[in-house]
């Protein structure tokens, strides 16, 4: 092995959590090479029958995959297999290939390549991006048949004898689907993002994955030892002993943490002195509903609906909204699911709406502002939510409310949507609870007035902190100023909670701050009724909560509010974590002892 | 895809407009092809200067028939009348889609 391929560390995007090590299994990088062979007219029927044979083999193989997927009740991501089957059974396509065999007197392989390449060119020239992409499907179908014809087995996971880490340029949906029943430890790909199809499937199958590594297929060879760290998004090729040991320890820590937390993966969530605090999940896509049970989430505290709109050409229909939310409501039952209306700006919307780019999108036309500007879009989502409310406990929340007028306007549109459904005789929950996000400072300041018009608040700290401190979190030069413990932030949080409680409504938090154990004593002391977070964080939060005395926290918060700087407050809390709250935060992880605060709370350090 | 100039035995022609929101995407093309395959007749869909075999999904998709596109259904053969009628009906029914 050459020296430069030792300890080679590649950075990609963490697509699915977990750490694994194993031998690399590199999927074929290039298309099969196809020789041209001249045939005599008498040989043509034989070539055609070879073609037909390959065709039917490929079709039954795909049908087999489909059947296995159905048996495992795998859902939507695999609809592409249907599209491939449809193409594969397109007689017109194969007639064209037969014609090429007969007229040009060439072997079946060559004829297929020729016809497929022609169609790929046709599709590449189309203007509609959706149709243009179908050219890939044509290519895949051609390659599948070619693999059958040449007898060269396409590499696939089902042949894996030993557990291995799969390395590929990209994985097709039918390939990722096959991971369900193979010895794949994890996978790494050249392309992809956290929201690409393969990443979503990996998370739902809980297979560690790193995507977007750009050139990994060129950098790894079959049989290389590979460490794949799906938490940090790193792949290490041919690691030496010390790196292996380091990762073994890391993996042991991760596994031990998960195991320990299994104990805390069931409700209720109670403090040492018996105070209940509801811990619920933030979900982004519908496939994540499996997390609810896994981590013992007490309902869905925030369902972001943006993914329904992104990565597509057409806007979602009312029925798509409805189907999606119905699934959510049914999975969350008997707990409630809080659905947030779209938090998008015009720029992120489906290409159907062409709007001018904005200078300052965070302060621009987005979320509720955009919804009020385009009531027909907004109402279509509201009707979908209302319809689904007949199937579970759905609550509705409006994002980015900055004043009372916006809230009243939004409520008016909601009322219209209700009346329309009523007239049409469609069932929905007329008592559906309506809340607002408190994420614009003005909303926190007039929370007492807003509280009169809603059933609950949910504080979105990611935006609130950014707006209060005038920090663009993405800007590396100012991100150090992003301080959740800034006295101004704490003061605003306290004010919003008190205003909500004075009006007798529930107050929740759903930003990143809500899922960080380090802040839990403060939030407990402020009197939050509910914290909503990435589902994975719930067991850890539940464990820490169990060790804390809620009654001690309220006076502590009063004390904290007298401090001068974020730094002082942070030091004060750190000291308590190290001493008084030691048991609450302590975790036994194999041979390592790690305080939860230092393990998880890296974000508070900056 | 070429411009069909000749007329054929029993040839019929109908004009129809794509009216479903997504246009003739993959699944819709599949439905149309399956329907077309039930007839003996040769059936072509014509959009402007382009023509596609109604029994070929690839050809249908490559027409890029989006909502509002006007298509000519041209069929010839024993059951050309019924074929053209059935295909137009499917297109007008928005390929069975909601909108």
Notes on the protein architecture:
The complex is a heterodimer of chains A (606) and B (99). Chain A has 25 helices and 18 strands. Chain A is α/β, with parallel strands linked by helices and 606 residues long. Chain A folds into three domains: 3-27 and 156-239, Phosphohistidine domain (Glucose Oxidase, domain 1); 41-150, Enzyme I, Chain A, domain 2; 258-605, TIM Barrel (Alpha-Beta Barrel). In chain A, helix 14 links the parallel strand 12 (393-398) and strand 13. In chain A, helix 11 runs parallel beside helix 13 (375-388) and helix 12 packs across helix 13 (375-388). The radius of gyration of chain A is 28 Å and the shape is globular. Residues 590-606 of chain A have low confidence and may be disordered. Chain B has 99 residues and is of the alpha+beta class. Chain B has one domain (23-94): HPr-like (Histidine-containing Protein, Chain: A, 2-Layer Sandwich), CATH 3.30.1340. Helices cover 30% and strands 23% of the residues of chain B. Chain B contains three helices and four strands; from the N terminus they run E-H-E-E-H-E-H. Chain B has helices at residues 26-36, 57-62, 80-92; strands spanning 12-17, 42-47, 50-53, 70-76. A four-stranded antiparallel β-sheet of chain B has the order 1-4-2-3. In chain B, a hairpin with a 2-residue loop joins strand 2 (42-47) and strand 3. The interface between A and B is medium-sized, with 21 and 21 residues.
């Amino acid at each position: 092995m050459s020296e430069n391929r030792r300890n080679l560390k590649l950075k990609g995007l963490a697509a699915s959590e977990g750490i694994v090590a194993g031998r690399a299994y590199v999927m074929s990088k290039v298309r099969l090479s196809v020789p041209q062979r001249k045939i005599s007219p008498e040989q043509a029927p034989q070539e055609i029958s070879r073609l037909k044979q390959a065709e039917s083999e490929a079709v039954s193989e795909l049908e087999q995959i489909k059947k296995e997927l159905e048996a495992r009740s795998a859902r939507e991501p695999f609809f592409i297999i249907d599209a491939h089957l449809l193409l594969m059974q397109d007689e017109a396509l194969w007639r064209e290939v037969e014609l090429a065999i007969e007229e040009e007197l060439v072997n079946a392989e060559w004829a297929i390549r020729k016809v497929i390449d022609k169609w790929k060119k046709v599709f590449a020239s189309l203007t509609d991006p959706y149709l243009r992409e179908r050219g890939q499907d044509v290519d895949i179908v051609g390659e599948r048949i070619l693999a059958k014809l040449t007898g060269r087995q396409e590499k696939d996971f089902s042949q894996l004898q030993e557990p291995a880490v799969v390395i590929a340029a990209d994985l097709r949906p039918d390939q990722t689907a096959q991971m369900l029943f193979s010895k794949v430890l994890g996978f790494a790909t050249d392309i992809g993002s956290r929201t690409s199809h393969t990443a979503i499937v990996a998370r739902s199958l809980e297979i560690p994955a790193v995507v977007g590594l750009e050139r990994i297929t060129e950098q790894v060879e079959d049989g290389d030892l590979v460490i794949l760290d799906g938490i940090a998004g790193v792949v290490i090729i041919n690691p030496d002993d010390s790196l292996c040991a380091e990762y073994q320890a890391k993996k042991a820590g991760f596994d031990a943490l998960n195991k320990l937390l299994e104990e805390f993966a069931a409700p209720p969530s109670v403090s040492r002195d018996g105070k209940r605090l509801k811990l619920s999940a933030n979900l982004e896509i519908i496939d994540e509903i499996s997390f609810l049970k896994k981590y013992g989430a007490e309902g869905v505290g925030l369902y972001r609906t943006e993914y329904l709109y992104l990565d597509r050409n057409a806007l979602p229909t009312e029925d798509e909204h409805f189907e999606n939310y119905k699934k959510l409501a049914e999975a969350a039952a008997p707990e409630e699911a809080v659905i947030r209306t779209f938090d998008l700006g015009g720029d992120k919307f489906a290409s159907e709406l062409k709007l001018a780019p904005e200078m300052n999108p965070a302060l621009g036309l987005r979320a509720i502002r955009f919804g009020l500007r385009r009531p027909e879009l907004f109402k279509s989502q509201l009707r979908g939510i209302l319809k689904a409310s007949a199937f579970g406990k759905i609550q509705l929340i409006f994002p980015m409310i900055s004043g009372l007028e916006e809230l009243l306007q939004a409520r008016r549109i909601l009322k219209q949507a209700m009346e329309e459904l009523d007239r049409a005789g469609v069932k929905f929950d007329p008592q559906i609870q309506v809340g607002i996000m408190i994420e614009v400072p003005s909303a926190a300041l007039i929370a007492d007035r807003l509280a009169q018009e809603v059933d609950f608040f949910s504080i979105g700290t990611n935006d609130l902190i950014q707006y209060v401190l005038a920090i663009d979190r993405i800007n590396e030069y100012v991100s150090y100023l992003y301080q959740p413990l800034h006295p101004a932030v704490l003061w605003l949080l306290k004010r919003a909670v008190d205003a909500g409680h004075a009006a007798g409504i529930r107050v929740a938090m759903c930003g990143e701050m809500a899922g960080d154990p380090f802040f839990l004593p403060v939030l407990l002391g402020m009197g939050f009724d509910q914290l909503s977070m990435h589902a994975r964080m719930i067991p850890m939060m539940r464990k820490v909560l169990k060790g804390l005395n809620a009654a001690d926290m309220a006076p502590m918060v009063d004390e904290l509010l007298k401090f001068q700087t974020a730094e002082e407050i942070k030091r004060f809390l750190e000291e308590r974590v190290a001493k008084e709250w030691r048991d609450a935060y302590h975790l036994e992880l194999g041979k390592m002892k790690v305080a939860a605060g230092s393990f998880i709370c890296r974000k508070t350090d900056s | 895809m070429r411009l069909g100039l000749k007329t054929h035995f029993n040839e019929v022609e109908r004009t129809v407009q794509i009216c479903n929101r997504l246009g003739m995407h993959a699944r819709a093309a599949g439905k149309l092809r399956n329907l077309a395959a039930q007839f003996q007749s040769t059936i072509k869909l014509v959009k402007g200067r382009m023509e596609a075999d109604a029994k070929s999904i690839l050809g249908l998709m490559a027409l890029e028939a989006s909502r509002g596109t006007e298509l000519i259904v041209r069929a010839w053969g024993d059951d050309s009348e019924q074929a053209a009628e059935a295909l137009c009906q499917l297109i007008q029914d928005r390929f069975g889609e909601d909108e």
